[in-house]
Amino acid sequence: MNLSNISRRQALKSGALALGGAMAAMAAPLHAQAPQPIRLALIESLSGPFANTGEAVFRNLLWAVERVNARGGVKLPGGARPLQIDRYDSKGQNEEALSALRAAMDDGARIVLQGNSSATAAALVDAIDKNNERDPSRRVIFLNYSAVDPVLTNERCSFWHFRFDAHADMRVTALMDVMKDDTSLKRVYLIGQDYSFGQSVLRESRRQLGQLRPDIQIVGDELHPMGRVKDFAPYASKILASGAQAVVTGNWGNDLTLLVKAAREAGYQGKFYTFYGNALGAPAAMGDAGIGRVVAVADWLPNVQTPASEAFYQAFRTRFPKAADDYVHMRMQLLVEALAQSLERAGSTDTVPVAIALESADVTLAGQRGRMRAADHQFQQQLVVGVMDRQGVPGVKFDVEGSGYGFRVIKTIDASRAEMPTTCRMRRPS
């Protein structure tokens, strides 16, 4: 055995270890200097009957976050920081959502995003209000993109909650702006999911129909369990038997797709006035039977006829080219832009200054402008109403989810006209 060779190998090994240690020591400060991301916690149904809606939300928010990070992140006094979106599955249950909220806070998130259930949003608002009063060191801001029960920015408004979607009464008003001019319409059927949002849609529809079109007869008015009806044929039969010329519904997700599919199969020839009939399988479920008959209200639609809007939509489809992923929400893009703007204006990630900055957020993207109303934290933006038609006809350049059907814009409601008064009495932190 050659001892000199062994000694040489040991020396080389020791040298390599020393060099590796030195390199690790040099790399450690570089790693420590990497900017910490600003964590956003998405609490949403990512499994169960409404998983497709949660995944659609995630794609939209992810795209918005990627856009902010691509331009360098959020500019703060200590240096730019990227946004990071973390997923927490509520499984469509309030208790699971509250558990997810606690987990997100333990993980360091101070900005929470949710929207696909007003009941869940109300539970989160209550929990966040209590947490923020009890533990100021772990205060949380709640950004809501779809929970549209009007009470959330009226009697149950909160300083910590900001809604970026038009609430149900605003959306009903936009639909009624179209319905009131249809003089042939005499019989209407109201149907919705049996929880706070569905109830508010039917309540406001009854009220506005009574004011605007007292000659219209409401021939059906019912609520059904949310997310638990697998066969809507009995409901479709009742709609057909009622002689209704139109159905008004706030249904979303599978509850809408299955309803319109059952109505088509039952031979229903009337119109559907919807909040969410423009995607997630509804157009494909209706097919040709939906042409000229399915009406949807939204903050934006792909066939808004401007170059900026078209470029915005095509950029999303480039990022998510699969037909099944084709559901773009302008309001979610504006939400992330408003957050980035407010973080930079606050010059901090502390929740109170960020919330104060959010109260006056004013952002524009692809020609769509939105501003936050400080009185109740209800975002104000234009609304559009579209009617389903075949792709390729005038006004329908883009279809939905590869279905061959898109939505032609028939009414644009300016933000000033869409705005409604509030009963909010905001309690702000001292």
From TrEMBL:
Q: Which organism is it from?
A: Variovorax humicola
Q: Where is the signal peptide?
A: 1-27
The record's InterPro entries line, in alphabetical order, gives: BCAA_transport (IPR051010), Leu-bd (IPR028081), Leu_Ile_Val-bd (IPR000709), Peripla_BP_I (IPR028082), TAT_signal (IPR006311)
- Per UniProt, which keywords does this protein have? Amino-acid transport, Signal, Transport
Residue spans crossing the bilayer? none
Q: Which family does it belong to?
A: Belongs to the leucine-binding protein family.
What is the name listed in the Swiss-Prot or TrEMBL entry for this protein? Branched-chain amino acid ABC transporter substrate-binding protein
- Domain annotation Leucine-binding protein: ranges: 37-389
